[in-house]
Write a structure and sequence with these properties.
Layout: H1 3-49, H2 70-77, H3 80-110, H4 117-124, H5 126-129, H6 132-142, H7 149-156, H8 175-198, H9 202-210, H10 215-226, H11 228-243, H12 247-252, H13 264-273, H14 278-308
Helix pairs in contact: 1-14, 2-14, 3-8, 3-11, 3-13, 6-8, 8-11, 11-14, 13-14
């Protein structure tokens, strides 16, 4: 090998090393942030779930006995756990269905060019940008049996004969947070799906019209396939945001009445900070984390398969 080629090889190696070092330096702030503010709490919570941690031994220096899966067994044997699991899944799937259908319908509507389309879309976003506690208090008042506007409207239309007391009734309490969450989530779905629709070229629809496709055929064979990545993102993000709900439920009902609106997050909170069973609370939080982690893995696998095609 000539001297010129050796020099060139050393230069390339040096240049490659500099690029790698620069990449590490750029990534390191985000990596440190992830490790300290995300990684450490997750690991600490996992360790906590395998220990017998109560208010008596939580202080530094106190012994925290390792008890294996006892916290998980106790959590699943708790009579509240079936209610929390059932309510979490019902709340998530019902909210997700209505959010997606209504959000998709509004996205298709506002994708059309008509007067005040942008103004109306901006007004709809208000429900999404409001703080969750404000939304919860607003809906709690609207569902009140005494001064609730929803019961008053239904009574005036002849649908009801007397106030329901939505949040006080064990059979209807869960519908209150569901309605509030749908109201919050529809604009979020609308915005993401609208962005997806804006990437579809008008020429595609014109070609379909030339081929004699009807409006329904365009929707089925053009819009849905091209919008599939956006739809998957909306559904997965919607599932994650809805499944881990805490503040909306806690402010509106506190998990009651009689566990009718208890979800995994509120159950974990009560175990840890009301009854001071920190190990069991951590175990329930980890169950919630594992479910969401599995959903994220499924989403990642689907996206990877789509990109490979």
């Amino acid at each position: 090998m000539s001297t010129k080629e050796v020099t060139r090889k050393r230069y390339l190696q040096t240049d490659s090393g500099r690029e790698m070092l620069a990449g590490i330096l750029f990534v390191s702030p985000a990596l440190i942030y992830m490790l300290l503010l995300i990684g450490y709490p997750i690991i600490y919570n996992i360790v906590l779930s395998f220990q017998d941690v109560t208010a008596l031994n939580l202080a530094a220096g106190k012994e925290r006995p390792f008890i294996g899966l006892a916290n998980y067994i106790s959590a699943f044997n708790d009579p509240t756990m079936p209610f929390a699991l059932r309510n979490t899944f019902i709340y998530t799937f019902v909210s997700l269905i209505f959010q997606f259908v209504l959000g998709f319908a509004f996205a298709l509507l506002f994708n059309k060019k008509f007067a005040f389309a942008k103004t109306l879309r901006g007004i709809m976003v208000v429900s999404w940008i409001l703080p969750t506690t404000v939304t919860a208090m607003l809906w709690k008042y609207m569902l009140s049996p005494d001064a609730g506007i929803i019961d008053n409207v239904l009574i005036s239309l002849g649908i009801l004969t007397k106030p329901v007391g939505w949040l006080n009734n064990q059979h209807t309490a869960l519908w209150g947070p569901i309605m509030a969450n749908i109201w919050v989530g529809v604009p979020f779905n609308m915005l993401l799906l609208s962005n997806g629709l804006s990437t579809i070229s008008d020429e595609v629809y014109e070609s379909a019209s030339i081929d004699g496709a009807s409006a329904w055929q365009k929707f089925i064979h053009v819009t849905l396939p091209l919008l599939k990545p956006a739809i998957m993102s909306v559904l997965v993000l919607g599932f994650i945001y809805t499944f881990k709900v805490f503040d909306l439920i806690y402010v509106m009902t506190g998990g009651g009445p009689v566990n009718a609106t208890e979800v995994l997050s509120t159950f974990s909170y009560k175990l840890s900070f009301r009854w001071y069973y920190f190990g069991q609370g951590a175990a329930v939080a980890n169950i919630l984390f594992v479910i969401l982690f599995c959903v994220a893995l499924v989403y990642q696998k689907i996206i990877s398969k789509e990109e490979a095609m």
